[in-house]
Amino acid sequence: MSNLKNTSEPSADRLSANNWIGHDGLNDDKNNLFESVANSMINAVIVTDFSGKIIFINEIAASLFQERHNAIISKSIQFYFRDIPDLIKKFHDEQLENCGVINDEVLMTLSDGRNLHIRMNVQRDELKEWNIYQLWDLTKQKEIEREDQRNQQMLYNIFSQAADSIIIFRDDGKIVNVNPVFCRKVNIERENILGKKIFSFIPKGFYHKIFKVNKFIEMNKKVMGEIPIIHQDGLSVMEFSISPNIFQNMHMAILRDITEKRQMEIKLRRSEEQFEDLFEETIDAIVLWDHEGRIIKANKAALSIFECTIEELLQSKLWDFLYEKDRKYYHISAEFKEKGAIRDELLFLMPNGQKKHLEFTSRMHSIDGYNITILRNVSERYQMEKELRDSEMRFRKVFEGTLDGMLLWDQNYLLIDMNPVAETILNCGQEKYIGMDIRNLIEDKVDTMNEFRTHMRDIKKHGQASQVISYKYEENKVKHLEISTKSNLVSNLNLTVIRDMTEKLEMEEQLRKSDTLTVVGELAAGIAHEIRNPMTALKGFIQLLENSMVGSQSHSMYFNVISSELQRIESIITEFLILAKPQAIHFNEYDVCRIMKDTIELLNAQALMHGVEFNIYYEKDLPSIYCEPNQLKQVFINIIKNAIEVMPKGGNITVKIVDQQDGYIHITIEDEGSGIPSDKIKKLGEPFYTTKDRGTGLGLMVSFKIIKEHKGTVEVESEVEKGTIFHIKLPSSKHC
User: Fold this and answer.
1) 138-168 in b/e burial notation, b at 16+ Cβ within 10 A?
2) What pLDDT score was predicted for residue 497?
3) Residue 618 burial by Cβ neighbours in a 10 Å radius (0-12, 13-18, 19+)
4) 3 pLDDT more than 50
5) Which of 324, 552, 672, 698 could form a disulfide with 723 if both were Cys (CB 3.0 to 4.6 A apart)?
6) Helix, strand, coil: what percent of the chain each, to 5?
7) Distance, CA of 736 to CA of 245 (rounded, Å)
8) Nearest CA-CA partner of 655 in 647, 645, 666, 642
9) pLDDT in tens, 671-703
């Protein structure tokens, strides 16, 4: 854009045509003097006639145009101003015609196409019918100005859009500027922060740290450390870096919230302690060994099984204790290398000469890069099997007199024998079915044939299997049978044990959930430890990598994806830990609407990505509730995340919180997803039951447990293709 500076009077430093150019052209002495003066000037001078034809240029002008003198003379001055808009050219002509002077900044285009930013002064000589152009090259100056503007804008963007909190303060500690991140952290408007001293955000017990920091600033040294910051929600541990004297005795502090990192470190130490307790006190032998088989660590149970000291064990390799390395051993080794995990049995020779059959489970690189093997002495079972093979009479008495149904069948699936109890349970005669295919005996009457076929495949693959099936023995009558099979039990015969579980099924249904939780609790600590060790390293190095690339926007998406996936793994580990060890819960009085608002704000970005919108209704003047807010937030996150994920094409999630006036707060979360069949609703909240491809089944189970601990209830209402509503009722503080 043109910056017009027109005046009718020429400046004192301009070349006046009337003073130098005579009436007889450029050939007389006076004009020679003009030419000498023009060539001695530091700015470009060009003389044109009224048509714009160039009739004179000084040496500076020739240098500016980067052309030979003869190539410029006789050209039109408009050739070099061809990129000036016509409207501006018209305005220049009017100014020259009316005032005889032009002062402006314009773009001049050279013969090679390059543009120069110049300041132009034009004076008209009516007597000689000449226009005298004086040009000053402002290109570099303008580039410097534009670079300064870009740098200022970049600094502003870094300050306002930085992920970390930034504070600018004076020597006396008064804050002169803060970025939006710090305002959000302390939940105070910027105007209310400016002028305050940094001390107002530091607990009194940490003032001594500020005094130490001031000494470093006085020595003009950069200082780094950690310090707590006070905000409306409590305290946060901040990692800080202070750069002194960035501008006129002003200093800059960059702060990063590491509260969660410190909490994770505490949890990690607790997990390590739990692992050590589990490692030492478990009744099974546990051995850690490296890729060469050298034993690195063993628990008390391992010392008991191998009947040696820890020093003797650590000097040995695990396979040094094998009785013999036969074909089975090499098959197990190959499978272990291929799959990374195996479960089997082998004969071991103890240092005292005793032979023991040990059942073991091995997993590769489970803990700190070492392999883990869990062993159990099953020698007694092998002895029992030997006695059964040696005593057909005793086996027959057991077979005929047992309270369970038993079927003996060979490798061709032909039924060899059936005891009386099996006849009663299966409602069939021995004479009719002896010699027939056992699969026909059971498959014809099972409620789901695929279940029994899976049972038979497991037997072939693992040598044993156990399963509960539904067996039709009369019209519209079904028995629930537990079928346990072990292959090659006696002389290439397979044994199937059948128990009628119909009467006990309801009782065991109640016990099943408790048993599952017990197993989950035993596994959770070990699993969490195994995952969290590499998790800590991953998160640390990702953070270091991200810090090393500050200012680069090209990889931010990758860091966000990595962080998001690590958070998903962390949430699964947290759910396991809740199952592994009961948490100490401290109930306080809280506003449930505030907890829900925080949850929705946390999940709002994910909802936008899926095209999901929230419809929210909070009844006014709701009573508070006694709760642990983080646990309730976990419940709301689990349910709302499920609602978002069941609406891949977007939709609405409706959240309502009302007072039922019966002492309970009623919270409803409704989605517009595909819904849940009625037969699956009753299974929600069971361990490992999930309707999602990537789900663990633990989210809702933990959520239901949390609501129960808060003396509340959860009910699920759903209609296929219409959506699902979660009804959560929690006692209000008035009711407690």
Assistant:
1) eeeeeeeeeeeeeeeeeeeeebeebebbbbb
2) 87
3) middle
4) no
5) 672
6) 45, 30, 25
7) 57
8) 666
9) 998 888 877 777 675 655 555 555 555 677 778
Total-model pTM:
0.31
Q: What number of other Cβ atoms are within 10 A of residue 680's Cβ? A: 12
- Maximum pairwise Cα distance, the chain: 146
Residue in the block written with tokens 């994770």: 264
Could you give the CA distance from residue 24 to residue 22 in angstroms, rounded to a whole number? 5
The beta strands (E) that lie in 380-524 are given as 405-409, 415-418, 464-474, 477-490, 493-500
| Whole-number pLDDT of residue 26 | 47
Give every CB contact of residue 644 below 8 A, 6+ residues apart in sequence: 603, 606, 607, 610, 612, 653, 671
Both structure tokens of 214: 């001031």
- Within 126-233, strands assigned E span 130-137, 165-169, 175-178, 223-231
Is residue 307 within 8 Å of 350, Cβ to Cβ? Answer: yes
Write the pLDDT tens digit of every residue in 174-210: 988 888 888 888 888 888 888 888 888 888 888 888 8
**CA pair distance 565, 575, nearest whole angstrom:** 16
DSSP-assigned states of every residue in 445-479: TBS-HHHHHHHHHHHHHHSEEEEEEEEEEETTEEE
In our burial notation (b when 16+ CB lie closer than 10 A, e otherwise), range 264-286 reads beeebeebeebbeebbeeeeebb
CA neighbor of 130 nearest in space, from 47, 74, 218 = 47
Whether the pLDDT of residue 229 is over 60: the answer is yes
- Cα–Cα distance, 230 to 54 (Å, whole number): 74
- Output the CA–CA distances (angstroms, integers) from residue 554 to 70, 159, 358, 549, 551, in the order listed: 52, 19, 55, 10, 9
CB 444 within 8 A of CB 426: no
Structure tokens at 337: 């290398």
Nearest CA-CA partner of 501 in 476, 473, 471: 471
Q: Which SS3 state, helix, strand or coil, does residue 26 take?
A: coil
- Cα dihedral 428, 433, 438, 443, rounded to 10, equals -50
Query: Cα(272)–Cα(277) distance, rounded to whole angstroms?
Result: 9
- Strand-pair partners of 472: 478
Contacts of 702 (CB under 8 A, 6+ apart): 575, 578, 579, 634, 638
